[in-house]
Amino acid sequence: MSSPDTPLISVMMSVYNAERYVAEAIQSILGQTEGRFEFLIVNDGSRDASGSIIDRYAAQDSRIRAIHQENRGLIVSLNRMLDEARAPLVARMDSDDVSRPERFAVQLAWMQAHPDIAVLGTNTDELDADGAFFPCSDFHPEHPADIRERLMAASAMCHPSVMMRRDVIRALGGYRAAFRHCEDYDLWLRVSERHDLYNLPDRLFLYRRSPDQVSEKHILVQAIGAACARYAAQQRRAGLPDPFEGATSLPSLDQIDAVLGSSGVGARMRLEVIDSIKYSPEAMSGGGLELMQAHLRDGGTKQGFWRTAGRMVKMGMIPQALTLSLDLMRY
């Protein structure tokens, strides 16, 4: 198919070592009933066959613009595509997910009819690592007020399902380098302070759950970044400067108070993070237990921590459960 001279949508997909799923993801975009788009695909230094798969599809469909680069990470790749996009609307896509055929048609019609909406997500169903389908019983909040309320506790949008107004996102500075693995959550908070976000009730997207996905592998870093994003939003909404504006990385939790010139913020963030990761074996074995120990040593509340020790036993983390139990008795 020939590329439209003036695409209505620029699709943004970054790919890193996704040879198992990327062909299915690309096919789901090329199979959209609304075809007036360009498809930007960044091969972010993949070491597997992803690059050759992308090139094969690019040779078959001129709507695809393949961009090959050394590995620079998702945030750099997304901002590069925002800069290079030619359409007023940008649609996200991840290399292991699937868009249903009517996704773009429904989202485009909604964005054209509702110029006040800056970011439009959808509800989702799920796939497992082997492609088995699971209908999802959870719903993202639909209306802007409900989304704003949810965002102060957790994300309220499925990032790869969204369609966004490019000029709005670029005016806000795009994705911020400091918020690795939670760049979308930080962006939604910043957008929500000036514009409306909306989630369609339609399940137009199939989100893949896999032990290898970023949200599973980096859950502790993600939780710390989310706590920092919420704190920054609270400061902005109070009319104060964003403490992480221009930062390329975030301080560790034990450095937060010194960096911010505050007292007690680090301890509050640490408790938020602990609450976010307590159901994750990966996080608990990757630094989460140490956060709990530091919290207890500093005299923090013990409420709920015995239940966490019990969950560790059920997860087979017997030594960690014993360590936490001893600390609960010691402090």
Automatic annotation (TrEMBL):
SUPFAM superfamilies: Nucleotide-diphospho-sugar transferases. The keyword Transferase applies. Signal peptide: none annotated. GO terms for molecular function: glycosyltransferase activity. Transmembrane segments: none annotated. Residues 10-172 form the Glycosyltransferase 2-like domain. Keywords: Glycosyltransferase, Transferase. The keyword Glycosyltransferase applies. InterPro entries: Glyco_trans_2-like, Glycosyltransf_2, Nucleotide-diphossugar_trans. Belongs to the glycosyltransferase 2 family. This is Glycosyltransferase. It comes from Sphingomonas ursincola. The lineage of its organism: Bacteria, Pseudomonadati, Pseudomonadota, Alphaproteobacteria, Sphingomonadales.
